[in-house]
Amino acid sequence: MDKADKTGTNLSRRELLAGGAAAASLAALSASASAQEAIGQPLLGNPQLPDMPSDRMRWAIVGLGTFAVGQVIPGFAEARHSRITAFVSGNAEKARRLGDAYGVSRFYDYAGYDEIANDPEIDCVFIALPVGLHAEYTIRALQAGKHVLCEKPMCSTVAEAEAMVEAARAANRQLGVAYRVHFEPNNRETLRRITAGELGALRHISADHGFSANPQYPPHKWRLEKQLSGGGSLFDIGVYGINTSLMMLPGDRVVGVSAHYSTPAGDARFAEVEGGVDYRLRMASGINVQGSSSYCWSPYVSRQRYFGADASIEMQPATTYDDNRILLEGGGQPPREFRAGNPMQQFAAQVDGFSAAARANVPHLTPGEMGLRDMRIMEAIYASADNDGAVVAVNIPV
Question: Which residues form the signal peptide (predicted)?
Fold first, then answer.
């Protein structure tokens, strides 16, 4: 017959015996544990730990257009050494709405831009304005004592680029150009494979980038106005092909440039800038980089091809924000397509890379001098196209 415990619960003899066995097991475990202890282990290696928020480099974002709002600012959410502390915009309402969303409480308009010199909560400035404004706002930020990462292309002319580099030198501040592809995992993996010799000797590179420009769409409209854009499709997307191709050719040198325009006759969109251009860069190594850019293609194209003596890599898409892929062919194996990582990592990696360079006051992976180099190449492309494809001799180290 069941017996009641002090709480009135009825326990059978079997349950009482089971409880006794459990108590005996617990006692045995306790006795065993007395011979062992949980102890701490040393921190192995040198893991890259994130900075505490208060220790992160502090950034002002200058220009709150679609690229800044859709890509640059969200990229800071994944950053480990960088945080946004200020917005600079001509639209106060938009700046404050974004400030509420991202915890930013410092705001400047363009008229008061130079006041950032007196703000100790700004270490670095990201210039995300139209190209025609890059030089002015970069130089003013450098003169205000801030490090500057400027969107690509660097500016409108070689003379402006030279002035920007000199302003950084005079201010003893770092200047970088936002060539995010250098931080994108799939392009970095392609560079690793080329450098490791997996393609054999590199023989040829081709690069094609384009889309159809819509003058009714505000982010496209300013790109068709030379004063704001600096140039046409070459400046906007052709520069990706140039810069990414040269990323794979460290130590080489551009010795000749030739080009032809490929703008459709009578297309009213291109009254001020070229619609398209085909170009060729002759390298000192004997390699040719053959490229094209266009505002007249549909659908959007972003393609890089690297041909080696033994194998080749095609990236299509190659330089997008979120969908880059690698197709490896040859080398005695079937074609294989893969991704080496999430392309969205490039935005956080880029700003963290610049934060590290600014903190140490050492050159960034994509410094102002690289932007100046690419401006000189694009200037030579235009010079050749203006002269019906005549070869322009240059001597531009990669």
Answer: 1-35
